[in-house]
Specification:
EC 3.2.1.22, alpha+beta, GH, alpha-galactosidase activity, eight-stranded parallel barrel, 18% helix
C-alpha cells in the first residue's frame, strides 16, 4: 500500500472516521455523532488528537484498537480472532493490502486505483490519491439515497490467513460490519472466534440490555459499566427468550428521549455472543458474533468463513433515537412488507387440538363479522396430531379429522374475503411420528444417544441432505397442493441441546440450512408470508427477519405483561413487524382478568390480531371488539409508518408511548396505569416528539368505552379535548385521569391550522 488515507463516512446524523494509514488494519477513530463536512486537512489532525500517550508499565508505543483487535498490536482484551492450525497460526499480525471506499457514484482505493465518477474530488464525493479519503453525505444530498461502503482487505502470510472487513453506513445512519476470514494455508484451520468490535467513547458509562424467559421476554436490565467484560452468550441454538436484542452503552442517566447512546445487535439465529468490554488501559468496545463450539468451523485450504452482520447504531437523542434509525432502516428494505398488515385471528386459544370443520367455519364467520382479515389454523391439522406428543414431522393433512382435506375451510375463509394461514413447525419432530420411525438418523444428536426431549420433541437435522430435501418437498407440496394458503405461522418450540451433525457440533450448519430452506420456499411461493414464532419470542433477530414478515413477540397475551414485552421488542423492531393480539378476558398464561379496552389498547400498537375464542362471546362484546378492530384499521397507516416514542415518566406505575407521523400532522399515544401509585393522582404526561411550532387537538377516540377511573370529577380538559402547541404538550403535557390499575387511556393528536 502506497497511499495512506483517512476516511470520513457521513450518513444522516452519524459519522465514521477510519485511520487507514497502515501498515496494519485500519482503526475506528470516531463512530458517533455527525462531525459535519470536515476539511481534508482536519482528518489527520483528528487522528493525531485521539492517539493515547505512552504511560509507565506499558508498551513503548501507543496501543491503538484496530478493526480486529490483535495481541500483536498490544491488545490484551477479548480477542477479535481466535483459532489455530494444529497449534500454530494462533496469533495474527494482519497488514493492509487494499482498501476500497464507495458511495453512489465514485470509488476510491487506498492502493491508488480509482473507479468511475467525477474527474476530481468534490464536496460530498471522494477525495483520493495521497490525500485523506472522505465519503460524506452533502447538505444537498447530492450523493442520493444510497449507502457509503468500505471494504478492507488484509493478509498475514506467516499465519496464512486473509481477512476482509466489510463496512456499510446506510442513509439512516445505521452501521453494519462483517468479517470474512480465508484459510490460505495448506492445512486446515480451526476457527474458535471471530467477533466484530467497535469502540465507544469514555463518556458511555452505563449498560442496558435485555433478558427474559418464556412468556416474559424482553426484560430490561441496566447497570454501571465496570471494568472488564459484560458478555451475553446465547447457547440455545436459536436466538433465545433471554437474547439481549440490543446491547446499549450510554451516558449517565440516558432514557428514551435523552442521552447519548451506542448499541449493537448480532443478526444471527443460532448460538451467538454479544459483548461490552471496558479496559483499564482506556478502551471501551461493543461487539458481537457467532458463538462457535469446538470443532464447529474448520476451514479447509481455500475456504472462507463470514461472520453474522453486526448492526451498530448511535443516537444523540436517547433510546428512541436508536429505534428511529433501526425502524427507518428496516422499512427501507426491499423485503419489508409492502401491503397493509392484515388483522389476524389465530384459532389456537379457541380450539387447541379440537379441530372440527363446523366449529371452525362458524369461528370464521365471527371473525369476518368483527373485521378480521387473516384467519390462521394452528397446531393439530396434520396426521396423528391430537396432542403435542405425536405426529410432529408428518406433514400430511389428517384425513381422519379432515376427510375432505383443508380446502373446504380455506374456501370458506376466502369466501369472506379473508386470507388463510396455517401453523407449521418444520424443524422439529416427535419420536412418536412416522418420520422418526423411518429415519431416526435424521435427528440432531451426538452418536449413541438423543438429547433430552423438550415438549416431546427432537430436532430434524436439516444439514442432512435427505432430511432437507424431504422437508422442502413436504412444505412445497403443502403450499402447491392447496389453493389459497397465504401465510405460514412457522414455529420452533425447543432449544437445540447437544445438537450434533455427523458427530460434530451442528448448530451453525442447522442455522444456515434453515435460512436456505426459507429462501427456497420464498422463491417457489413468493406470495406466501411467514411469521417467525419460537415458543413466542425466542427467535427474534434481524437475520431471520430477512426471510420472514413478522415475529410473534410472546406466547403471553396478558396485556399487562405484553406492555413491557412490546415496549422493549420495539427498541429494535417497528410495530408492523411485531404480532400483537387481543387475548381472552382471562389470560391463558397468567390467569389475570382484564377489560377488553385495556387488552385492545395494548394490542393496537403492532401487527394487530386476536387470540381468543370469539365464537363464545356475546353480541355486545363482538360489537366492542369490532369497534377496536375498526380503530386499528383507521390508525394503521400511521401506526405502521410513523416514528415510535416512549415517555420517560417519573411514576413507575405509569407507562406511556406513541407513534407520530413523520410530517408531524398526526399522532396517537397510549397511557397505561400498571398498578397503584404512591401519589393518588399521577403527574401530567408529556407527549414528546410533536412539532413544537404547530398546534394540536388532543382527545380520546370517539365511540369506544372509557377506561375505569377512581375520581369524582375528571380533568378539566378531558370532556371536549384540548388544543395546545407541540411545545406545550411536549414540555407540560396533559393531566391524567385517576385511572384504576390495569386501565389505559388512548389519545389521538391532530395538527390544526
Amino acid at each position: 500500500m502506497t497511499n495512506p488515507s483517512v476516511i470520513h463516512l457521513r450518513r444522516a446524523a452519524t459519522s465514521l472516521v477510519l485511520d487507514a494509514r497502515g501498515p496494519g488494519l485500519p482503526r475506528v477513530v470516531h463512530w458517533g455523532a455527525d462531525l459535519g463536512p470536515l476539511p481534508a486537512d482536519d482528518l489527520p489532525a483528528l487522528v493525531d488528537a485521539t492517539i493515547p500517550p505512552v504511560v509507565p508499565s506499558s508498551f513503548d508505543a501507543p496501543t491503538v484498537l484496530s478493526l480486529l483487535p490483535e495481541a500483536s498490536a498490544g491488545w490484551s482484551g477479548r480477542p477479535g480472532l481466535a483459532g489455530h492450525r494444529d497449534g500454530t497460526a494462533w496469533s495474527t499480525a494482519f497488514r493492509l493490502d487494499r482498501l476500497d471506499v464507495t458511495d453512489d457514484t465514485t470509488t476510491a482505493s487506498a492502493d491508488g486505483t480509482r473507479g468511475g465518477g467525477a474527474a476530481g474530488p468534490e464536496p460530498g464525493r471522494v477525495a483520493f490519491g495521497g490525500d485523506p479519503v472522505r465519503v460524506s453525505e452533502a447538505d444537498d444530498d447530492r450523493d442520493g439515497p444510497g449507502a457509503a461502503r468500505v471494504t478492507v482487505r488484509a493478509s498475514d502470510p506467516a499465519a496464512a490467513l486473509s481477512l476482509t472487513v466489510e463496512i456499510t453506513l446506510d442513509p439512516t445512519g445505521l452501521l453494519t460490519l462483517r468479517h470474512r476470514l480465508r484459510n490460505d494455508g495448506d492445512a486446515a484451520y480451526e476457527l474458535r472466534e471471530l467477533t466484530p468490535l467497535l469502540p465507544v467513547p469514555a463518556v458511555a458509562t452505563e449498560l442496558l440490555d435485555l433478558t427474559g424467559r418464556w412468556c416474559r421476554e424482553r426484560a430490561p436490565q441496566r447497570h454501571p459499566w465496570p471494568m472488564g467484560a459484560w458478555v451475553r452468550e446465547g447457547r440455545h441454538g436459536r436466538t433465545g427468550h433471554d437474547a439481549t436484542l440490543l446491547l446499549v452503552a450510554g451516558t449517565p442517566g440516558f432514557g428514551f428521549g435523552h442521552g447519548e447512546v451506542w448499541a449493537v445487535h448480532t443478526a444471527w439465529s443460532g448460538d451467538h455472543v454479544t459483548v461490552a468490554e471496558r479496559r483499564p488501559t482506556g478502551e471501551s468496545t461493543l461487539g458481537g458474533g457467532e458463538l462457535l463450539a469446538p470443532g464447529e468451523i474448520v476451514l479447509v485450504p481455500g475456504e472462507e468463513y463470514a461472520t453474522p452482520l453486526l448492526y451498530a447504531v448511535h443516537s444523540a437523542a436517547g433510546l428512541d433515537g436508536l429505534s428511529d434509525v433501526l425502524h427507518r432502516h428496516l422499512r427501507a428494505r426491499p423485503e419489508h412488507p409492502g401491503t397493509p398488515r392484515p388483522v389476524t385471528l389465530n384459532v389456537w386459544e379457541a380450539v387447541y387440538f379440537d379441530h372440527d370443520l363446523a366449529r371452525l367455519t362458524a369461528l370464521a364467520d365471527r371473525a369476518a363479522e368483527v373485521g378480521v382479515e387473516r384467519f390462521v389454523l394452528d397446531d393439530g391439522w396434520f396426521r396423528g396430531r391430537r396432542h403435542d406428543r405425536a405426529g410432529l414431522g408428518d406433514w400430511y393433512v389428517d384425513d381422519g379429522v379432515w376427510p375432505d382435506g383443508l380446502q373446504p375451510l380455506i374456501d370458506h375463509v376466502r369466501g369472506h374475503g379473508m386470507q388463510f394461514g396455517l401453523w407449521v413447525e418444520p424443524e422439529m419432530l416427535n419420536p412418536d411420528s412416522d418420520l422418526f420411525r423411518a429415519h431416526p438418523d435424521w435427528v440432531l444428536a451426538t452418536p449413541g444417544r438423543l438429547p433430552p426431549e423438550w415438549r416431546h420433541q427432537q430436532v430434524l437435522d436439516l444439514a442432512h441432505p435427505k432430511a432437507y430435501e424431504h422437508l422442502l418437498g413436504r412444505l412445497d407440496a403443502l403450499l402447491a397442493g392447496h389453493e389459497g394458503i397465504a401465510y405460514l405461522k412457522w414455529d420452533h418450540n425447543r432449544d437445540l441441546t447437544e445438537a450434533g451433525h455427523q458427530g460434530r457440533p451442528g448448530v451453525h450448519a442447522q442455522t444456515v440450512a434453515v435460512y436456505r430452506l426459507l429462501d427456497e420456499l420464498r422463491r417457489r411461493h413468493p406470495g406466501v408470508e411467514i411469521e417467525s414464532c419460537s415458543s413466542g419470542g425466542a427467535r427474534v433477530d434481524l437475520e431471520i427477519l430477512r426471510r420472514t414478515d413478522r415475529v410473534w413477540a410472546s406466547d403471553c397475551n396478558d396485556a399487562l405483561e405484553r406492555l413491557a414485552i412490546q415496549r422493549w421488542t420495539g427498541l429494535l423492531l417497528p410495530p408492523e413487524l411485531v404480532g400483537t393480539h387481543i387475548g381472552p378476558e382471562r389470560s391463558h398464561t397468567t390467569h389475570r382478568v382484564h377489560d377488553l379496552g385495556f387488552r385492545a389498547v395494548t394490542a393496537l400498537f403492532g401487527h394487530h390480531g386476536i387470540e381468543w375464542d370469539i365464537g363464545s362471546i356475546d353480541a355486545a362484546q363482538r360489537a366492542e371488539l369490532a369497534a377496536w378492530v375498526a380503530l386499528h384499521k383507521r390508525l394503521r397507516p400511521l401506526l405502521h409508518s410513523g416514528r415510535v416514542v416512549r415517555v420517560d415518566h417519573p411514576d413507575p406505575a405509569v407507562q406511556a408511548h406513541g407513534v407520530i407521523a413523520h410530517d408531524g400532522a398526526q399522532a396517537v399515544y397510549a397511557v397505561s396505569r400498571l398498578t397503584t401509585s404512591a401519589a393518588q393522582v399521577p403527574g401530567a404526561v408529556r407527549l414528546p416528539g410533536l412539532d413544537p411550532a404547530r398546534r394540536y387537538a388532543v382527545r380520546p377516540p370517539a365511540g369506544l368505552p372509557e377506561p375505569a377511573v377512581l375520581q369524582l370529577t375528571e380533568p378539566g380538559w378531558l370532556p371536549k379535548g384540548v388544543t395546545l402547541s407541540g411545545a406545550v404538550l411536549g414540555t407540560v403535557g396533559v393531566q391524567l385521569p385517576a385511572l384504576h390499575p390495569e386501565q389505559a387511556l388512548l389519545l389521538e393528536v391532530t395538527a390544526v391550522g
